[in-house]
Amino acid sequence: MHPALQGLLTIAIGVSGCVGYFYLSNQFLDKVLFPARGPNAGRNINRANVIRPWLFLFPALLALGLYLAYPVVETLRLSLTDRIPGGGYEWVGLENYRQMAAEPKFWEAMRNNMLWLIVVPAMSTAFGLLVAQLTDRIRWGNVAKALIFMPMAISFVGASVIWKLVYDTRPAEQDQIGILNALYIFFGGTEPQTWLTIPFWNSFFLMIVLVWIQTGFAMVILSAALRGIPEETIEAAILDGANPFQIFFKIKVPQIKTTILVVWTTITITVLKVFDIVFAMTNGQWETQVLANYMYDKLFRANDWGVGSASAMVIMLLVTPILIWNVRNARQEMK
Amino acid sequence: MNDIAGTRPALRWVVHGSVVLLVVLWVFPTLGLLISSFRTADQIATSGWWRSLFPSEQNLTLRSAAPETQVLENGLYVIEGNLFDAGVTAKISQWGVSSRAIDAFKPGETAELRKGGTITVDVDGNYRMENTEEFSGSRGSRVFVTAELPPEFTLDNYHKVLLAEDSTDSMGKAFFNTLTVTIPATIIPILVAAFAAYALAWMDFPGRALLIAAVVGLLVVPLQLALIPLLKFHLHIGIPKGYLGVWLAHTGFGMPLAIYLLRNYMAGLPRDLIENARVDGATEFQIFTKLILPLSFPALASFAIFQFLWTWNDLLVAKVFLIDATGQTTVMTNRIVELLGTRGGNWEILATAAFVSIAVPLAVFFAMQKYLVRGLLAGSVK
Prior knowledge:
The complex is a heterodimer. By secondary structure, chain A is an all-alpha fold. Chain A has two domains: about 80 residues, no CATH class; about 240 residues, Orthogonal Bundle (MetI-like fold), CATH 1.10.3720. Helices cover about 75% and strands about 0% of the residues of chain A. Chain A has a two-stranded antiparallel ribbon with strand order 1-2. The longest helix of chain A has about 40 residues. Chain A starts with a helix and ends with a helix. By secondary structure, chain B is an alpha+beta fold. Chain B folds into three domains: about 50 residues, no CATH class; about 100 residues, no CATH class; about 220 residues, MetI-like fold (Orthogonal Bundle), CATH 1.10.3720.10. Chain B contains 15 helices and eight strands. The N terminus of chain B is likely disordered. Chains A and B meet through α1, α2, α4, α5 and α6 of A and α1, α2, α3, α5 and α6 of B.
């Protein structure tokens, strides 16, 4: 069957299946199981209302459990086992973790990931805050914001191509077609650089791509937060003779502190999952490896599920503090 | 009340200037790729894209017409014509007839040809070759010119990338595959999540707070963890690599954000509305379909955009759950990565392919930016 047709059919089956499930299960509950008539009408209505939320929740819970919760447990199990050639698994305890810790590539990925975790959220949030503040009161601010927000819509792969052109290198005697090298030569550089192969610094050239994408996100959230600051606090500061920088750093930033933290953690999570950029631009060569790409290498190139799962658990472990913090915040907010 | 901008003119210029600089920084990379996709391979390889917007000085090797076009005029054999293709208006500053001295002559001057005869080249590329004997050979003489050419763009790359028959360059198929992945993977989670979100927002049952907390927690679980367990699970229940698998995976991975966004929005709807409907005897199912669903349109739109952008731009899930060894079901992001590997130097193909894949999300972005912003504001855990 043609895939497009299959797609349309899936939409039809999926949508009608969902609607049908919800409608019919409700009908069944109200008409057959606990009909709201007869001697037990009152009790039946109550019983139906106890069960109904679970009817509404069931498909979503199934998807959540099967596609997100179960894999966490299963990955943990896989990380503690090894596949036996020919089928089956054997329990190896922490052997996979030990093996991983002995690999220099893993520590390279860890080191790079830590750099990413510091640089990307910090730069994205800082740029986002800067743009949000600067565009706040200028007339074409919305146009500027839309343009800086735009990379959000571009795929990591597309962004990788865009930036590969920026970093492109031609032999010294030719015209440079990458804008970075062209500027480098223009400002007195002698030899064109192959930016993505300079160890240590090349990671920063990859990080720039993610900063470029995430700044728009930070800007949108922080811009809304800045607008939410009560005018009186700023007016009072101006009357007291505060200069613009004092107003920004001493009045505005403290009031949006929690929002800044939210932006920071959200970007942190994106950073931990970053895979496409490294995969497309360097594939972890020249010491640019990161955890997510290391894991992909192990799982699908080396076919080593044990170590692959162990590295996935490391990512999970790094996410956990944020997970707990988020859950705690959400619970506080609901009270 | 003006604070930073507005009170001091000097500072205001600094603000405007900085914003211009930032916008330029953010737009230039994309612009470079867009412009490159309209240039020929030669143009991209020989000069930076930023030069293509202005007339540029280039060294070209051109050829006069072949000797068979010569005519006899007053005892002289003459070949006349223009060095450039029809429609090109260029300005020659220097020219030569030998590759070792390409700047030997000024426009209007006359040069001796190595094989006999003379040639005169004008500033606009018109030339006249004269010889007392007949010109021989099958090809015309080479002329080396330094000329200023106007900006030139072409749609050939798009034609090649979208419509080429040979599958190596074609993005057409990958485009439709991506679309096939994206649309069901966007629509189905919305419906499933909307019902759950309603239950979590407006129904009372034990364990509700716990479930909401669980959803918030699952929001940040990296999907990397799910790859192998789900691949195993899919194979176990008989779903091979293919569209069904990728639709299911996207549905599962999109679920926490969908539930979270929709629940937050629905919980904000006025309580009176729902209680009045309940008093009037509407069933929960009716309240949901007739009242909540239409009122939640902005939140539904927000999530739809997120899920669309995410599934369209995704590489990892497609690689793991969709693309099999035959490569028939490849998506655009994967094609581009392959092109980066095999044709790292062919910028005209790469730039065009990337832009074909970027164009759709960009269009969605600019058309529905309002909903995207709203969704972001509601979706970030506060």
